[in-house]
Amino acid sequence: VPHNKNTENCETVKMPVPKRVSVAMSMHIGAPAVACVKKGTEVKVGDVIGTAGGFVSAPVHSPVSGKVFAVDELMMPNGNKTQVVVIDTDGRQTVSENVKPPVVTDYASFIEAIKASGLVGLGGAGFPASVKLSPKNLDDVDTLIINGAECEPYITTDYREMIENGADVIEGAKAVKQYLNIAKVVIAIEANKPEAIKKMSELCKGLDGFEVKTLPSVYPQGAEKILIESVTGKEVPKGGLPADVGVIVMNVASAGFVGRYLATGMPLITKRITVDGDAVAKAQNVEVVIGTPIKDVIEFCGGYTEEAGKILYGGPMMGTAVSSDEMPILKQTNAIIVFGREKAVLPAANPCIRCGRCVAACPMGLAPVEIALALSIKDADAIKELYADLCMECGSCSYVCPAKRPVAQTMKEAKDFLRKAAK
Fold this sequence. Notes:
The protein is an alpha/beta fold and 423 residues long. It has helices at residues 107-117, 129-132, 157-179, 194-204, 224-232, 252-264, 294-300, 341-344, 357-361, 368-376, 380-385, 396-400, 407-422, and strands at 13-14, 20-24, 34-35, 42-43, 48-51, 60-61, 66-75, 81-89, 143-148, 184-190, 210-215, 247-251, 270-276, 284-289, 308-313, 320-322, 335-340. The strands form four sheets. A six-stranded mixed β-sheet has the order 1-14-13-17-15-16. Strands 2-8-7-4 form a four-stranded antiparallel β-sheet, with no helix packed on it.
């Protein structure tokens, strides 16, 4: 797919704190956090405003100082509703007295620190980091892969993390390596990022067990299971986890955050995002506080050049369309891409010609044509036997389809149908 890395040379600019933020309690895979503040509560930067709602969950912190305006309900792009804490900011950004570097002495205290930080995977998936770093077979894990591939079109936030905060990435990776007792760290970067490869290679010089690996610039190279195979030659078994082949994968921005958090104690309250698309006046990389409305971000980037036809959380291949620019920035938001009316219109779908291109393009070796047929007759057993649940929703099938069918959307429907059937 075209890279369209228009903002790769745009140094990150910090956006002023907006007058009001809306901090969602569901910004990760797993159980949503539970709001622990109420209307009128005074909060400071770094205060806990949402406690983890289960084992696979993460706490949420106030990104601003101010007063809670409301604890309301928010409809997420996937149709699920979640609590949202709306805060009127006071502009002072007073830091909470609870923000201090964590005391880490061993694996257990390291995991507790990561859990308290609110870190979730910053590459887009949003899996709670404390859970990812606690595999059941930790003793079998010998490789940590720091994912710097960033294969999604338009997005350059990971690239800027390596260029601007490479030392933090190394410090975070060193901490994970030390406390999880992992022998080898591989920083994997696509070949279309030569400056990042150079920068990270320089930072790795003299570090025992560290290496930088250059990967082909082929989508979806950054997908976890694809990355593991490219780096190690090992294939994660169907239904398995990276730890099953001795690997943990961590996004570069996540590693960079760990490095900063261990030094400062400041939890996850800001996010670097790429703002791009033909309907935005100025494409750039922006650091914003989590909960900032999309409309405020667009205004900071010069506003719309035309009426928005589609606004995406993320990129055009794996991003999610939002219904309104009132939606807030989430922990896992790595881009806001805005297309005008012309680019937003989907092409008319024609009948499937059974060419098999979707099968050839699928990085997981699935058969979207057969899965679509099984879905059309509501055959849950067939959908399961065809491993539809392994679909990573990369969009490759839709991209190559000559009939312009919504193949990826159909795959997602099949996965949803399978989940409902299982219940």
